[in-house]
Amino acid sequence: MNREEALHIVKQQMHEKRYIHTIGVMETAIELAKLYGVDEKKAEVAAIFHDYAKCRAISEMEEIIKSEGLPKDLLCYNKELWHAPVGAYLVEKEVGITDSEILQAITYHTSGHEKMTMLDKVIYVADYIEPGRKFPGVEEARKLAYTDIDQALLFALKRTIQFLMEKDQTIYPLTFQTYNAVIKEEMSK
């Protein structure tokens, strides 16, 4: 499927603001993929579909988590996480994308995981820094993304964890595990 077909599919799944965000993530992911030697087509597809389930009903996502073998512990954490693994499931079932690297990047674009591939990092960071994002520190994150993606990932993880703590929200264990893995990797350099 080409870019236009993929964008047409996702546009039907989301409101205009989310679609504009998706375009920003796609453009950023392609730039980062070029910079870090990642397959640009895979980055493009993963970015286009990363929020495929974002606008689905919470009840639908909950049912998919319960019935389709997704990690049940998701149900104990922030619902904002759900759209990532549910989205990967739906992209495979409804769109027919079966590339495991693309599906993994979609699955973990909100939480991260301990053994992130460069594609995973590109999608996670692109989602965090796309041009529509406006928050304190985003410019620093953008600079890091184009010089050291691991430092950008670490920056995003720290800020996400701090944000959730300040809001007295639970933090998904995979996010902590990702943070620890990136710190260990950085210390071993």
TrEMBL record:
The keyword Disulfide bond does not apply. It comes from the Bacteria. One of its GO terms (molecular function) is nucleotidyltransferase activity. The keyword Nucleus does not apply. Keywords: Hydrolase, Iron, Metal-binding, Nucleotide-binding, Nucleotidyltransferase, Transferase. Residues 18-132 form the HD domain. Its EC number is 3.6.1.41. It catalyses: P(1),P(4)-bis(5'-adenosyl) tetraphosphate + H2O = 2 ADP + 2 H(+). It holds the Pfam family HD. This is bis(5'-nucleosyl)-tetraphosphatase (symmetrical). It comes from Bacillus paranthracis.
